[in-house]
Design brief:
Layout (H helix, E strand, L loop, with lengths): L1 E5 L4 H12 L3 E6 L6 H4 L8 E5 L5 H8 L4 E4 L6 H6 L1 H22 L2 E7 L27 H21 L3 E6 L2 E2 L10 H10 L4 E4 L5 E3 L1 E2 H12 L7 E5 L4 E3 H12 L5 E4 L1 H5 L8 E2 L4 H7 L7 H15 L6
Parallel strand pairs: 1-2, 1-4, 2-3, 4-5, 5-6, 6-11, 7-10, 8-13, 9-14
Antiparallel strand pairs: 9-12
Helix pairs in contact: 1-8, 3-5, 5-6, 7-9, 7-12, 9-12
């Protein structure tokens, strides 16, 4: 198979490309390097089945040119991280919506299967302890602009379902829940690499808000296996799947665990959200998935624990020789 991965120079995309190349597939990565990095895919350039194209999903002609020679598409290109979204509202919405529309439109012309990566953000303000794909979605008001990301990703899902139902395009929708591991940067607000770098530097570990908010974290290797499994499963077409770890932890407890595993003496400091993201931000309390649908269809079961994620991230940051970059 020859796959197109949009956003393939990003954290998740680069691991997906690596997985496919290692099992013998061909991969074309399209990335504008806005938040992706050439360093993430540098080791893949020696592989004969790998090709990188610098460009954007906003360029429909380029998308069409590349997709013509591919069998299927993993669409990962999107705005990344709370910090990036809050600082680039219009760009984030445009990339998420217009970029996805371009990918789906071109794929429909050639009948190419598409896996759309959505986000746990679409569950919005729901206070359920575990989110199921059939749950109602509760999005906050527009003046709380944090919700622009959730809304744009939800529109992506509706577009994908529209192309499936109206045009017969084979589409799978995956809602990713806090995917973490080596190569992830804290630059755009991702909490684990930020905590780890602060701990390794002996800096205060900064917990935003009360620290009582509950999250779950999935190793990027588990995410990749789940995504590929769903891409290859005919029964998954036209459906939405949660891909995440059903075990939750408070952010406060996460900070303590990072401090313990790094052997750091860093203090844990609490900072109000308003000081970080301004007055237009609103957080949610729970973000833990029900993954029974993915388990039933492809046998999805996370293999790696939170401790595995943290140890792998700590090792990667130490080996990268640049722990001061946050």
């Amino acid at each position: 198979m020859r796959y197109l991965i949009t956003g393939g120079a990003g954290f998740v995309g680069s691991h997906l490309a690596e997985y496919l190349i290692h099992r013998g597939d061909e991969v074309v990565v399209l990335d504008n390097l806005l938040t992706g990095s050439l360093e993430n895919i540098e080791h893949l350039h020696k592989s004969p089945g790998f090709r990188f194209v610098e460009g954007s999903v906003m360029d429909k002609n380029l998308v069409a040119e590349i997709m013509e020679k591919c069998d299927a598409v993993f669409h990962l290109a999107a705005a990344v991280g709370v910090k990036f979204v809050m600082e680039n509202l219009v760009t984030s919405i445009e990339i998420n919506v217009r970029g996805t529309e371009n990918v789906l439109s071109v794929a429909a012309e050639g009948g190419k299967k598409v896996l759309i990566t959505s986000s746990s953000e679409v569950f919005g303000k729901s206070n359920k302890a575990s989110f199921h794909e059939e749950d109602d979605l509760i999005i906050g008001p527009p003046h709380k602009v944090r919700w622009c990301y959730a809304t744009s990703k939800l529109l992506d899902e509706f577009l994908a379902m529209g192309y499936f139902l109206e045009k017969g395009l084979p589409v799978v929708i995956v809602r990713l829940f806090n995917v973490c591991g080596p190569r992830q940067t804290g630059r755009y607000g991702m909490v684990i690499p930020r905590f780890v770098k602060q701990a390794l530097n002996g800096e205060p570990i900064t917990v935003y808000g009360t620290g009582k908010q509950i999250r779950s974290f999935l190793h990027v290797k588990d995410a990749v296996v789940g995504m590929v499994g769903l891409m290859e499963e005919k029964r998954a077409e036209g459906m939405v799947f949660n891909i995440g770890n059903p075990q939750g932890i408070t952010i406060e407890a996460l900070a303590i665990k990072v401090k313990e595993l790094t052997g750091s003496s860093s203090p844990i400091v609490y900072i109000p959200y308003e000081e970080v993201y301004g007055p237009h931000f609103e957080d949610l309390i729970y973000r833990v998935p029900d993954v029974n649908r993915a388990k039933a269809v492809i046998g999805f079961q996370p293999k790696y624990s939170l401790e595995d994620i943290l140890k792998d991230t700590i090792s990667y940051i130490k080996e990268s020789g640049n722990p001061c970059s946050t």
